[in-house]
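Chain X:
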Amino acid sequence: MPMTFVNDFYDVCHFPATVVQNGWFSLQYDSNNMQYKFRLLSALMLGVFAITFLSNSNGVAHQQNKDRTGAPGSDNTCEQCHAGGSFAPQLSAFLVVDGDVELPGEYIPGGTHMLVINVTSTGAPMGYGVHGTAVLADGSNAGSFNDQDPNDCIWLDEVEGRHIFEQNDLCSSGTFEVEWVAPEAGSGPVSVYVASVTANGNGVSSGDSPEAAQFVFTEGTTGVETLADERFTLMQTATGQLTVDCFEAHATTLLSMDGRLLYEGSLGAGQHRVHCTHKGLVIAHTVTESGVVFSRKTWMQ
């Protein structure tokens, strides 16, 4: 439908029928009704503008002031626009305290944690995006986020009072870390809602694969010291080095998040240093000589 703008009183010049014409619009003058007529030549170009606006590499909270995390009261998630991809993404999330101690599905009230979000996929995507929040059962903010590294691929935002973390660009890695201070004791379970996009990098929303998930962390009753005081411990003690401590002889296998074998061997009782240059999540599976099984995760810096 043409858009028409009426000229003002002072416009008494006579123009030819078409004054300006390019790939966007034509400007015409109608001497009968003293009006300029702006006619868009391609509705398709408007569609491209709309899609491009929705394909923000900086995140929708920052660009659109929208909460698309999937949490109660949020707007439509990423899958409303991003579709058509074949990357089959998967989402996981866990909490780490003291640099390398992973909590078993719980949080320490009032404690500072590293929330780690990991997006894996098939194929060869050009990058990843993530958009998330942490809320209590009533939908209010659960604790607070800290921007621990201004140079990483995460920044913090707020939409109608809700704390949001999201990517600040199309990120080459699917692993995102954000520092999170848990709510005080008595707050109950915390739900972390995450919406992600595995992107093909074409600049629009077509050909991407969205994935969203909710992760529930219960309120813990123990501190870090209690968690670490066990018969088997696994921690990073130096760059490229893990220390394994077990109460008896054992066979230990170390794997990356995507299942790559990092180490496999038999060790005696006590502490042993294992060379491991992998950065990111390391999963240990240990079976002792008496048949006791341990499974641990640690985060390598």
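Chain Y:
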Amino acid sequence: MAETFLALGNVDKTTNITKAGKETVFGGTTYSAVTARKLGLTTTLLTRGSDELKDWLATLETMGIRTILETDKATLTVINDYTLGGEWVQKLLTKTGKIILDLEDDFDIIHVNPLYKEISMDVIRRARKQSKLLSVEVAGLVRDARNGIVTANFLKSREEWLEGVDIVHFSDRERRFMSRETEPRRICEDVQSCGPRIVLYTLGANGSIVLGNGFYKIPAFKTTEVDPTGAGDVFTTTFAIRYFETENEKASGLFATAAASFKVEDFGSKNIQSRERVEERTKKLMEEVNWETTKVSKTNSQVN
């Protein structure tokens, strides 16, 4: 019987502007749900939004994804602009209220993917009780907006937010809002001290870091980037699924890297691939790319 998976957080309407072009897609929790379904899990997606989402949710239903819409007067709508130089700029057009999570179902894995203030601490605590493994994305917990431009604030009460979380993910963009440390290993250790068993720290083209029982550097898979939006969601979802299956941190990091590399090759969720394709690219990453996945002892203070 297939494992059960809940993608919890908003589906947003996103206009992504990159050097490769411009496209409007329904993203957010879409990336996690499509990934889980492509990997063979029995998948549910729960989002908050307006009737504007109904056609897209119906499309996801045709893929075998059960969808639940908590009705709101608005749908989270943003513009992601990667062409302005420096860091990605996100513009917030509309937002939703808080997700309620009025579900009695239990799941093998719940992935909490807040985009902009729609997830409360209470919802994360309930997700903990309803899952065997709980993973959480940090981005939507630290985001704020000033004059319509999305910014971020340091996550207050980190221990309360992360208590009981199995896997937490943040990117290099969010790391300064999660830790006062500056060295990668110490950043991860600082966040791990707040409660999560495993910390995932992604660095874009520079790969990722996994801190759990071991400490691993995972190289990126070199490919042509069209749209990076959602790559972190795919990475964390895939890592959580593989780890649930194997309890192997290194193997899960490599598998997640391969899965996320497909995502960046096209806009939206359309290039998220099957388990078989991800397995093939994982082997290529291990055999053909000049990768040096290094396990560093927990007493070593430097990343090699």
